[in-house]
Structures are given as C-alpha cells and as structure tokens.
Design a protein that fits this description.
Blueprint lengths: L1 E7 L9 H11 L9 E6 L4 E6 L7 H5 L5 E3 L5 E3 L9 H5 L5 E4 L4 E4 L8 H5 L5 E7 H7 L5
Antiparallel strand pairs: 1-8, 2-3, 4-5, 6-7
Length: 149
C-alpha cells in the first residue's frame, strides 16, 4: 500500500498563497485564507515564508489529545477529523507541534489537511514546487518511525 505525504520546501516558496486559496475553494467552495487547511506566514523582509500544513506525523499528537475520539487515521493512513464527533474544543490545535490545525471562523469548525483524500489540490496549485507529493511504501513508513505502525 502506498502512503502519500506532502513535502514542504520553504526555500522555494514565493508567498503567492495559491496553496491557501486553492485549498479553501476545494474544501469550502469559497476563497478565504482562514478557510484553507494550509497557511502561509509571509516574511517578505526576510526573503522567506513559513508553510503550516499537517505532515501526518507518526505519533499523531492531535489524535491522542482529542477527548472525543473525533480524530482518526483512515485506511489510507490519512489523519482526519470526524465533524460529527468533534465538539470544537480545540485541544487538538494546542497538541499539534506544527500549528497545522486551524479554526475556520465561518464554519466554526476545526480543520486540518486531509490530503484531499489522495489528490492534494495545494500541491497541484503550487507554481514553485514548495509543496510536492511524496509517495512512501507502508514498510518505509514503519522504518522511518522506528518500527512503530
């Protein structure tokens, strides 16, 4: 089974925000920098930018922290939020070491990258390659996490 992840290379990010706007349109059907599952923090005077997006990290601290069991890992190894179970307590937001779980003020829901369920729109929209698709084999994921599934 192949596992997909998004690889981030901030050194080539132009700060165009295409990833953010494409993500919000794909998930919410409107464009808003606050509604995307990816955030770009612009640092124009430092010639660098910060990209905050869920990396589907191995220990899943958001999943562990969720008191309602609303965060789960699906059959494709994608960590997702079950909107029905989520009470919007935001504990997962505090637990995320990458600040990659967001609050959508319009829908009043906690949101995070779900890799567009296999076809990340932000990767396709990124004109510089700052976001790219990484495909791993399941056994490679195990090795990279010290044998832990």
């Amino acid at each position: 089974m192949e596992i997909i992840r998004i690889k981030v290379d901030v050194s080539v990010c132009s700060g165009c925000l295409s990833c953010c706007t494409t993500c919000s349109m794909a998930h919410e059907q409107y464009i808003s920098l606050r509604a995307g599952r990816v955030s770009v923090v612009l640092h124009p005077f430092e010639s660098r930018h910060q990209i905050d997006i869920c990396r589907q990290c191995g220990k899943h601290p958001c999943l562990v922290a969720c008191p309602e069991g609303a965060i789960f890992r699906d059959e494709r190894d994608i960590v997702r939020i079950n909107d029905v179970l989520c009470t919007q307590c935001k504990i997962c937001m505090d637990a995320c070491p990458l600040d990659a779980i967001f609050w959508n003020p319009v829908s009043e829901k906690v949101i995070k990258c779900d890799l567009c369920l296999g076809q990340p729109e932000c990767v396709q929209a990124c004109p510089t390659g700052a976001l790219s698709l990484m495909i791993l084999k399941r056994d490679m994921r195990r090795k990279s996490q010290g044998g832990v599934e």
